[in-house]
Amino acid sequence: MMKKWFSLGMAIVFILSVALRFWGLGRFNTLVFDEVYFAKFGNNYLTGTPFFNAHPPLSQYIIGIGIWIGKRIPFWKGEVNGLAGSLLSPWSYRWMNALTGSFIPLVVAAIAYQISHRKTFAFLAGLFTACDGIFLVESRYALNNIYIVIFGLLGQWFLFLALENNSKKRSLWLIISGIFFGASAGTKWNGLWYLLGTYAIWSVAWIVKYFATDEVTDVTDEVSVGSGNKIFVVSEKPFSVKLPLQNLTQINIFQLLFYLGIIPAFVYSIIWIPHLQLDRRFGFIEVHKRILYFHQNLGGNTPDIHPYCAAWYKWPLMTRPMAYFYQTATSINEPLPIMGPPLPNGVGKIIYDVHAMGNPFLWWFGVAALLLLLVMLTQKIFIPWVQYKRFPIQSLTTTSLTIDIWIGLYLVINYSTNLLPWVRVNRCVFIYHYMTALPFVFLAIAWLVDQSLRSYYKELRIVGVTITFVILGAFIFWLPIYLGLPLTSDSYKLRMWFTSWI
Description:
Layout: H1 5-22, H2 35-47, H3 58-70, H4 90-102, H5 104-116, H6 119-130, H7 133-139, H8 145-162, H9 167-185, H10 192-211, E1 222-224, E2 230-233, H11 253-271, H12 273-278, H13 284-296, E3 322-329, E4 350-356, H14 360-388, H15 393-399, H16 403-419, H17 438-453, H18 458-483, E5 486-488, H19 489-495
Antiparallel strand pairs: 1-2, 3-4, 4-5
Helix pairs in contact: 1-4, 1-6, 2-3, 3-4, 4-7, 5-6, 5-8, 6-17, 7-18, 8-9, 8-10, 9-11, 10-16, 14-16, 14-17, 14-18, 16-17, 17-18
């Protein structure tokens, strides 16, 4: 049984993810938030209705396929509405997102295992991802952000698989990786940030190789923080086979350009074909000009444009989440409210709120873990640079770069490439734009907890267990506003810790 704990644990995480996404999926027989666009657009492809799409069309194709299948499956034929252009049940335009979102924790866990070969790290990464609120909310409605994330992460995972296989299988995995990177960009343009993060870590690997004086291997090492005391074991044991992040230089510039350049661009281009066949008003170039014009003219990033506008620096600490649905009723026995304004203050005693917000402690602990990783990288790289007045990669490679240093580089670089491009964006943006960076937050806190549980110090092992249970408890506490369950006014206020959350 102990040997099978990882498979059993991941099965439980997956079942939990599926259950939470499908339970009460038909609640609110209406179009919630941007379902007014994406559910409608998905149905437009089925009805042959031309329309302008302000994003690449892949997610709407998938939602449309879900509608087509859903209309032919009898057991979820409940309430229907015509808000998407045809008589549809909410299940029919939501179930594909729920299914896709259920796999994201498994993909994050797979990446964690691939870059470390540590099962505890992988399990924690999957568990923490399953315990996030905004991924749960986005998976339960016909929205498009989960597709950017899962396709981008699959692109990186297949890249890591390629780096652990021989040349025959490597080409196949690299082709699949390129396809998924193209699919991520084919959902939204910011899917390109996953490809940017891949280019960045690949470039760092080549810089390390260029300055190396000997072969980079993995050995047992420890991180010294602050006073220099040994805190975390950063490698369990030497690896006889290098892990993917240590093999990045096995991909040369020509392979990178073909597999992770030409193939994603080709995939992105052919994704547009069905849409351009449906709406013949604009060609490929013209439709991109119009999309760019649309986003450039959405207005500034202020509450005057939209009450939930939130600049990029507000995302990591979750200072401005947003309500996707908010209605009130006088009692829990009333039918679920779906249309019209909320009741006046003091009249409604029951609140139905679907809040697009993360698990607060998961996000806050995750940002702290990323900062710790940054401290570790600074200690190993930048402090020696200043101290010895030279570029430190040489000295690092003679004692070897540990796999945890590579993990730190991978997480910090990919988090940065998914967050920092938003610094120069002037249009109104929202907290859900942070979702592409969040998997690296979850991986960071999973890494920290894993290190704590493996520490020599009992106090740190207790800290790791405590962090895990705080994250699980917080998820349960805020679960009603992820699922849109009925809450009394007092219960709702209890979960809105800050006025900026409302």
